[in-house]
Structure formats: C-alpha cells, structure tokens
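pinned: reference chain
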Amino acid sequence: MVITGLKKARPNKNEPELWEQIEKTTFIIFLPSGCIHMPTFITFLLNHEQENRITEAIEDVGFEAKLIDEEVMEKNILLCRLHIKGMACKYCTSTVEFVLQTSPGVQRASVALATEEAEIRYDRRIVSATQLIQAVEETGFEAILVTTGEDRSRIDLKMDGVLDKRSLMMLESSVQALPGVENVKFDTELNKVTILYKPDQTGPRDLIEVIKSATSGLVNASIYLEADGRDQHRYREIKRYRQSFLWSLIFTIPIFLTSMVFMYIPWLKAGLEKKVFNMMSTGELLRWILSTPVQFVIGRKFYAGAYKAMCRGSPNMDVLIALGTNTAYFYSVYSVLRAATSDNYMSTDFFETSSMLISFILLGKYLEILAKGKTSEAIAKLMDLAPETATLLMYDHEGNVVGENEIDSRLIQKNDVIKVVPGGKVASDGFVIWGQSHVNESMITGESRPVAKRKGDTVIGGTVNENGVLHVRATFVGSESALAQIVRLVESAQMAKAPVQKFADQISRVFVPLVILFSLLTWLAWFAAGRLHSYPNSWIPPSMDSFQLALQFGISVMVIACPCALGLATPTAVMVATGVGASRGVLIKGGHALESAQKVDCIVFDKTGTLTIGKPVVVDTRLLKNMVLREFYDYAAAAEINSEHPLAKAIVEHAKKLHLEENHIWPEARDFISVTGHGVMAEVSDKSVIVGNKSFMLSSYIDIPLEASEILIEEEEKARTGVIVAMDREVVGIISVSDPIKPNAHEVISYLKSMNVESIMVTGDNWGTANAIGKEVGIEKIIAEAKPEQKAEMVKELQLSGRTVAMVGDGINDSPALVSADVGLAIGAGTDVAIEAADIVLMKSNLEDVITAIDLSRKTFFRIRMNYVWALGYNVIGIPIAAGVLFPSTGFRLPPWVAGAAMAASSVSVVCWSLLLRYYKSPKIVGS
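pinned: its structure tokens
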C-alpha cells in the first residue's frame, strides 16, 4: 500500500488519528521512514476485507491510499554496487555511507573500506544508479559502477581496427538495435566497448558478430581481458604505491644519511656543516632540495585527499598526514631561510621528518593493499572453478552435429550445446541432452561421490566430468549461473557490517578533529612549559629550542593517531571469514550473521532433511509367503513405478538394485489406481497387486495376519514406515522404509554439547518417530507434531528466556523459524525459500558444518577483538608517548618519522592478524 500526503512515515502530533485507526485495523510488520514529498510505503498482513477497511481509514483523515502489487514493488528494488576510489580511513566510509543513506529512494547503504565498495539497496522508480554515483562524487570521491542490480548481463569487448567518429556512431546504432541490448558505452582510449544486455534475448557472440558485420570486417571484437575494473584498480594502486615508495627512498635515504649518520663521521660532518649563505649550511640546503620533490610530487596524493576532505567538511587521515608533514617542512624552510639571512641564527630543520614520514606511510599503504588483496582470494578461487574455454557444437537444420568449435567460456549463450569430455569441466549450467557419465560436484555441493548423469539431468558449471562424454544445453549463463550467484552472495556478505563495527564508526566520527585539537594543545603545553622554564634546559637537545621541541611533539601526536587500523579491524576479519567459510561450503551472509553465530547457546533442529537424509530408502524386507525376493520386488515396483510418492520411489530404486542390467523393464501395470496418502493398486501380469499402509489394506477388505501386525508395531518403534504388499488379496510381505539419520549426527550433537550449546529437535512428525530419532542422535528435548508457526513460536519463547537461538532447517515449513531465530542455518539441498530466509547456508548439507559455522564465527570475533586491541593499543600507548609523557622523567621523545612508522605498522598488523584466519581448520569430530 502507498500513502501520499504524509509529512513523516511515523506518528506525529498532526496525524495521530490516522495511526490510531491503522493500528486498530491491522498489524504493521514493517514501516520504513519516509521523507518530505515522498510517498510512504507500508506493508501489512491483510485479507481483502481488511484492505478495504485500511484504505477507508486513511482516506477518512484526508490522505490518499492505494494498494500496489507487492511483486511490482519488489521488482523495482535493486541492489547496486559501486567501486569507490580515494577512501583513506573509516571517516571517509562514514561520510559516503551517510550521503548514500540519506538519498531519496535508498533503503540501505553499506560502505566497506577493506573492499573499497558500496552496496546500495534502492528503488529505481525514485533514484537511478547514475544519481547515486553523482551523490558519491559530490563528496569528493570517485565512483565506478560495478552493477546496477538489474536483470541484465555486462560484457567488455576489445575492438581491434581503425575507428573514427563515423564508425563509432554506426557501431553504436547497430549494437543498440539488437534485441535485449540495454546500454552501449565506448572507451576510445582503451578501444573498449561495454555492453549491458539481457541474456535470454542476445549473447556475446551475437554482439561480436554484429560489430564485425557493421564494419565490413574492418573491426574485430574479442573479450576484454582486463574487464574486471576492481582488480584493475587494485593492481594499478599496488603499482602506484610501490613506485611512489621506491622514488621516495631515492630522495629520503640521502636525507636520512646526511641528518643522522654522516654527522657522526668527522670529515663528512665538516663538509655538511660548511656554510653556503651566512649561517645556512651545505647539509641543510641539500636536505631542502631532496625533500621538496618528496613533499610536493611524491606526496601530492595526501594533498589532494586532504583538500577534498576539507571541502566536504570531513577531515580524514590525509588531513593529519598533510598537516604533520607540512608543519615539519615549512618550519624547516623558515628556519633555513632565516639562517641564510642571518649572521648568528643557528637553524634546526625537520626535512628528514617530512620525507621519512611520507616514505613510511607509502610503505604501510603498499603493504596494506597487498594484504587486503589476499582477503578476497576466496572469491578469486571460486571464479577460477569455471573453465577458460568450452567446446561449442554446431548443428545442421536436421539436428545433426556437423562440427565443433573451441570458444572462450565467457562467450557461451543461452541454449548453446557444449561438449564436455572426460576430465573436463562443465562450462555452463544446463541439462544433458546426450551421453551419460559421472560428475564430481564436490566443489559446489560438497557431495564427495560423483553423481551419475544421463539425458535430462541437470549439471552445474565448474563441476568436473569424471568419465564419458556429455552434450549439455546451456540454460543459465553469465550472472545467472549457480557459481556467479555464490560469488555474489559472498561479495554481499563481505559488504555487510557486523554490529560490533558501530563501535569503530562512533569513534571515527570525532577522532580526527580531536586528534588535531590534542596535537595543538600538546604543542602549546610544551611551548608554554619551555617559556616558563618548567623543565631543565638540559632536557632540550642542543640543536633545539623549546618551540622546536614542542613542534616535534605536536607532529608526532598528529601522525601516530591516524585511525586507519580502527577502520580495518572488523571488515578485514569479516572478509576473510566469509571467504574461508565459502571455500568450506558454509555461506555466511555478512558480519551480522557472524556476530550472532558466535553467541549461540541453543540450536533448534528440524528432523526431516536436517537430522535425517530427507530421502526414504528401503532398509528391510519381511516376506510372509515363499517366493523369490526379486520376483516380489518386480511386482511391487511395477505397481509403484507410476506413483510420485517418496516411499514409492524408494521401493522402485531398491528393486533396481536386484537387477544387473541398468535399464530394467518392469512388467506392464494395468488399471492403475493411486489413493493419495494411502497406496496404489494395479493389475501386474497375472496378479492383482496392492501396495500401501494398514488402513488402505483394511479399506480394500484385505485381512492383515497377526504376524504382519506385530512387524508393523516393531517398525514403528524403530522410527520406520511399514509398507504392506498384497497379491491376489493376500498379504505376502512388508517393506520397511526409513529416512536414515545423517552420518555423524550423534557426534555433532555431542560436540555441540561440549561447546555449551544445547540441541532441541522440533518436527512435524509423530511422537513415536520423533522420540526414536531423538534418542538415536542424543537430543533430549523434543517437540513433535509442530506446525510451521509453532516452530517459530518455540524459537521466540527460547529468545524471551534469554537464549541466543540458531535454527537449522531445510523446508518451506522451516522458513518462519529461520527468520525468527537469531541465526538461521539452511541446509543447502533444501528449498530456495529456506535458503533465502537463512543467515547461513550449509552448501554441503552436512551437519558438521553447523559446528564449522559456530566455531568459525567464534574464532573470527576473537580476531576482531584482538584487532581492536592492536588498533586502540597503538593509540592508547602511542599517543601519550608521542605527546612526551616520558620526556620529563627519562628525556625520551618519539621522533615524528618513528610515529609514522608505528602508524603504518598498526594498519599492516591488523590486516595480517585477520589474514591468519585463512589457515582456519574445522574442528575434528570423533567418528568423522
């Protein structure tokens, strides 16, 4: 429902009667805050009669209201990703995030310093991706569009050939005319064209062919090898910082030697102290000349960053560095110039301070970027699962294969037929149209045994074909593939913030201004102390006066207090943890899920498909008449082959195992009748066959002997289902079908207990089966015959008692409980609804991964806490020392260049400490 005319999307003194009537009419489950002149969207749980009453209630108080299609609204909500260049610290990310969050139409915005990306959930009817980019750039940062979130694919093509203005116009119009092409953008400097298109209407090969045809073959197009702008930017940034650092060393090393080493070598000292102009020495002039390019050429990045930061009123790390190095440099220039114009003034320069500061900071940034690049290696490994090339089959008009062509796998289009040879990787999601083989899907699903594939079976891109040749028709390509969706999920998880990060956000908002103020107060305090002779002159180095000493303290404070490490403490650990989890088949949807998982002290398990396999299998057969077992199953399978019931499929699968041939032909079944929930009956060969439960037999007037009744009771006590088989109206046998418990289920429950995590089973199954399963796996607290809403209520009751609850489930009926729980864990083989509702997806469907998820989250937050100790420890200890707290008692002072090295080391140490999570190993469970 949309309401227009409201000043705010929440009660105020002008509109109380509206909200009173709404609250009396229905229950509001979601109410996003709106803004002036914008429509307000409200979601209700209503039936048709309630919808009319709500509409009337709103109109009665003078506003307009109309119902909107929820699906239409959902289609207009997109997830946009931007790569943001120029962010230096947490203060920068807070500024960008605030600007995006307050933009009209933006529902949620998250900015990560570690990935230098922003993820924005927005309504495209109100704001566009272009407007979001403009909003970011108005804050002084550069934004590059990664994806708008719209249902379309993107490809970058390199054009080889001579292109003039006329050719470009002709190319653009030709490509734009293709069905499904959304946008065409040319980059003449790189000879690159970026095309956004709908994959179900066109594809990369069609685009390449159009470019070639439109230019009569004068221009050829191919995949642009450096299409990933984010990687491109990171490599350029690494190269730029490395070059800048090396160039700074060329100038800084001589400065360091002339100021701190050569002064202790008599003959060199004499040469450096030789006067050039009045009291200005050779050494001072040399240091001035060498430090100038470091300050203004190599260090220009800090000037640009500081200028932009001050323009947007949000001082950051660049401001602190620029202030510190400029203070040291320009005071040195003043001192040297004064010496050059005086006969008796002894100058003291800090040229080594400014140049060494810049060098150490560049080294720190270089090491930091190198380390940050490793935090996202998991995504790169996932993307590497896809093969580089694919064999495309050519068909004639009659459907016969007439040839094959090896192409780049990124050129595969929907409905292409791809040939997969033994040992090769499946190049695209699709289904088999010819051939049979076994495919290793462990890298995607975690299934250790190869899965048999034949005509009609689906395959996943990136999996390995073990034996046999397969012809696969591509169904999901590019961004639609399963692999691409997993990568997207991990990327989104790395963007999502943990609640603990709010601590760093709050500090960063006021940190830089406070540091500047504290640096000024430090300088004033020491300068005043020197003027008032509050400390002995013997404490002052011979080459300094009180002003110079105070200046050095102020610069040291300003430099050492940069908050870079604080901003990296949480996101780097979350990035590594989500990547490590993904590589082990545990997809964690961001920092919030991680933080909640490490607090879990109670887990609610569903039974079917979670504690059990979820697929019934035959475990026993009891014959009541003398007959061959294979013949017995031939009759039963012939009757059940036409049924879709899971128990029927289990019987047919078991019957197949009794025959050597792979495609056994069952006897013909005539007059087939299926009674839902009871059983089937049919005429098979010369016998009348009935297969079903006890009530079905009784309703069919078939007597059940005492022996059969006793067997059924025994099977029920063992949590098995007894299926009765009758032939010619006489019971001939009972088939025991069971949903087997997952391997190591008992060990997992036992290990969770050792982690102080209580396990509870909630199932919709009967009490007898539930108790039998619970006893076998070691769960004492059991709730059976529970409806979906009762599962959610159980979770809420546990939460109200002060527990942090995780829910593990796989079905649609588990979704309410998965949403209600503090952490929802969905079994990867479960339904899409359950996976969407969960916070963590266990791709391998192994119960051991529940332990992995909790253990990984606990170890991650140990790292995060230690990161804060590192980050804050440097500042808590370093700032007082830099301010001179030890100077009165020991005469020790921290030179600014050492403070700069400490600041750089803090960021590097935080990132490296997070990177140690890459070596995480899951707990070893007894029996696994």
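why pinned: The chain is about 45% helix and 20% strand. The mean pLDDT is 78.
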